[in-house]
């Protein structure tokens, strides 16, 4: 809840600063506008998905620990639906990093040749250094997606061993990705 509220305030501040400057109501320095917009577009989505993933991971860990201590007691349907899915809770975070890293690579990769062609050496160096960050994020995200897939299949196996029979409605809800789309596919797929 706090993450969503902070995100809404940050996004509102970014939009308000751009609109206020465009309409001439108030002069907002470009550095502040740029930092607000970049934070809203790149940092905020990762933070929001990350907080929700940590919440789901914590709940998942608590359910598995409780099952180890009290093997005959099954969690409530709500606990299962909130914290267990057919995907690992970190999968959406890795997809978000992958998508934003790809966008960053595309934007900086397109801007770099233009900066170098204009003879802006300092801008070229900064863009080149900036390009290394999304490329590293892409490499990290791809390995994270693979690792999360393996962990997700292990979680499904553990869940099946611990609670072999679940109501059909719960089973259907567990196949819906934590941050995914209605048709069962992940938005990054």
Structure characterization notes:
This protein has 6 helices and no strands. The protein has 189 residues and is an all-alpha fold. The model is unreliable at 182-189 (pLDDT under 50).
In short:
It contains six helices and no strands.
User: Could you say which structural class the secondary elements and strand pairing correspond to?
Assistant: mainly alpha
Gyration radius, rounded: 21 Å
Distance between the termini: 27 Å
Most strands sheet: none
Q: Spans of 5+ residues with little confidence (pLDDT < 50)?
A: 182-189
Helix fraction by DSSP (H/I, runs of at least 4): over 70%
The gross shape turns out to be elongated
Strand content: under 5%
Average pLDDT for all residues:
81
Count of separate DSSP helical elements? 6
Keywords summarizing the entry:
single chain; 189 residues; disordered C terminus
Write the layout of secondary structure elements.
Elements: H1 2-23, H2 30-69, H3 77-83, H4 91-117, H5 121-162, H6 168-174
